[in-house]
Amino acid sequence: GLRIGVLALQGDFREHLRAVETAGAAGVGVRRPAELEGLDGLIIPGGESTAIDKLARAFDLAGPLRQRIADGLPVYGSCAGMILLAHDIADPAADLAGNPQQTFGGLDITVRRNAFGRQRESFETDLDFKGLEFSATEDGVAPVHAVFIRGPWVERVGPGVEVLAQVEPADQEHASHAADLQGTARIVAVRSGQLLATSFHPEVTGEKRVHELFIRMIRGEA
Ligand code: GLN
């Protein structure tokens, strides 16, 4: 069976480990470089991207992880995990010494942190999500119920980055909490090669298909 690591430094790694096991793979918490060995894929969870960045550097994981991503390890990042996979952050945080937060990179995108409005903790909406055709019924592919918790959006995608889902201004009206999209469709899920990222948290809603898509990517079936 597949062994999927979940970066377990901070954030909601337990929910991802559960989602991976529900999908039929073995989930492995990753805290040290040796635990990157023998993985078929890795998930970077939601949480706080600045904390995960700092801990990854303190645990000497950041360099090896950057290298594994460059070597083609399949990686899925949700929320903070999307930020950590991004080449660029539009509004990086700085630590007390003024050093900007760093990312592992791999995805040629620019993200904006906490993009949906700082004062609002979260919002929820239903999204059309490309790549989930394997789950189609005679009614088509059911939308993904997406929960955003201080999530980023994607402001730029480079060549080779496929947009899988966007929040449309019309979705905003149906959202359970308003989000300020400034009238523009906002990209919230992308794929580039073996890298997948979502601004939202399928691991907290019982939505299984995003993890299933990631497993299909690892198997070369998607
Ligand atoms: N705002 C957080 C960050 O910058 C991400 C929030 C999340 O992962 N739920 O890391």
UniProtKB/TrEMBL annotation:
L-glutamine binds at residues 47-49, 113, 149-150. InterPro entries: Class_I_gatase-like, PdxT/SNO, PdxT/SNO_CS. GO terms for molecular function: glutaminase activity; pyridoxal 5'-phosphate synthase (glutamine hydrolysing) activity; transferase activity. It holds the Pfam family SNO. Pathway: Cofactor biosynthesis; pyridoxal 5'-phosphate biosynthesis. The keyword Cell cycle does not apply. It catalyses: L-glutamine + H2O = L-glutamate + NH4(+); aldehydo-D-ribose 5-phosphate + D-glyceraldehyde 3-phosphate + L-glutamine = pyridoxal 5'-phosphate + L-glutamate + phosphate + 3 H2O + H(+). GO terms for cellular component: cytosol; glutaminase complex. One of its GO terms (biological process) is L-glutamine catabolic process. The keyword Lyase applies. Its EC number is 4.3.3.6, 3.5.1.2. The active site is at 79 (nucleophile), 201 (charge relay system), 203 (charge relay system). Keywords: Glutamine amidotransferase, Hydrolase, Lyase, Pyridoxal phosphate, Transferase. In the presence of PdxS, forms a dodecamer of heterodimers. Only shows activity in the heterodimer. Catalyzes the hydrolysis of glutamine to glutamate and ammonia as part of the biosynthesis of pyridoxal 5'-phosphate. The resulting ammonia molecule is channeled to the active site of PdxS. Belongs to the glutaminase PdxT/SNO family. This is Pyridoxal 5'-phosphate synthase subunit PdxT. It comes from Arthrobacter globiformis (strain ATCC 8010 / DSM 20124 / JCM 1332 / NBRC 12137 / NCIMB 8907 / NRRL B-2979 / 168). The lineage of its organism: Bacteria, Bacillati, Actinomycetota, Actinomycetes, Micrococcales. The gene is pdxT.
